[in-house]
Design brief:
Layout lengths: L10 H19 L6 H24 L2 H27 L5 H27 L13
């Protein structure tokens, strides 16, 4: 795996950003904009994916990163569930549902792969790099 120097280089974060843009568009351009509580909930869950990847990475330790990645992965599942509600309430059509569901699923799988990689890696993290025991 190539060395990643900043969280913006993480492909799962990049795809989560795309998902965020799409969800925000739905939240502002459809009747979801009037469903305030649900709109805020789906925006928060979607933002949580990006934000937890970023925060975990910046903490500089493998175990902390894994912890934040598991939260981000859970948020992916929450967004997938919310997509069903968005679809069932007819805020989006089936084609848009399938597109966004597939993207959220892909992001969750990428995060899971990163977690698996980190769990088997000897990498401890940047904050432990120069530490003497």
């Amino acid at each position: 795996m190539a060395t990643i120097k900043k969280f913006e280089d993480i492909e799962a974060w990049q795809k989560a950003r795309v998902l965020n843009k799409e969800i925000y568009k739905i939240a502002t351009e459809t009747e979801l904009s009037k469903d305030f509580r649900f709109r805020n909930q789906v925006n928060a869950a979607c933002g949580s994916i990006m934000d937890n990847i970023a925060e975990g990475f910046e903490r500089g330790g493998k175990l902390e990163f894994i912890n934040f990645l598991t939260i981000a992965k859970g948020s992916c599942a929450e967004v997938r569930s919310q997509l069903y509600r968005i679809f069932d309430r007819r805020y989006i059509d089936e084609a848009k549902f399938n597109e966004l569901y597939k993207l959220a699923e892909e992001i969750g799988n990428m995060i899971g792969g990163l977690i698996n990689y980190l769990n088997t890696s000897e990498i401890k993290g940047r904050k432990f790099k120069d530490r003497v025991s």
